[in-house]
Amino acid sequence: MVIAVNGVIDWIRGATHWFTLDPSDENRRRWSQPKDGVCYCAAVDAQDLIPEYIDRYLRIRGKRPEPAEKYTPEWWLWRWEGALGMNRCVGHINTGNSAWGALQLARKLGARRAILVGVDASNEPRIEGGNPNNLSHLPLLFESGLDTPGFEFVNCGAMRSRVPQMTIDEGIQWLMR
Predict the structure, then answer these.
(1) Domain range for residue 61?
(2) Is 35 helix (H, G, I), strand (E, B) or coil?
(3) Residue 41 above 80 pLDDT?
(4) 149 CB contacts (<8 Å, ≥6 apart)?
């Protein structure tokens, strides 16, 4: 299984799934032009209208008090309403970042192992163009999933965190074991 997140679907080949937590105009354009053989999935709010052919998940937001110190990873986690831990409820995916949601989707679809490719938690321009919002909270999200029973994952990107790090080739070999 290969899950393309947001704009990655525009340039990757071999994706089996597409996922977003972001019902932006650009992602609405993407899901309005589905690629053959790709299962489209979105975790959105209950009131968001999406086409019937998209596998719908409910977007679960984190609820915590605003941290006193602004612009820290913890503050950005609060600002983006990130929810820590892998959501175990059927049909629910925790929010905070679409790659974080895609990892939860992989687990819900039965994966026991996953590799993260392209998750760098930086503000560098995206491959498909444009710049991300502040992503300094991503290590907090992904680290919160490390103790999920029956599920392992590694990072093959540049994100610095407690998530085990591998090259893409090492990650693919690890998946095949």
Answers:
(1) 3-176
(2) coil
(3) yes
(4) none
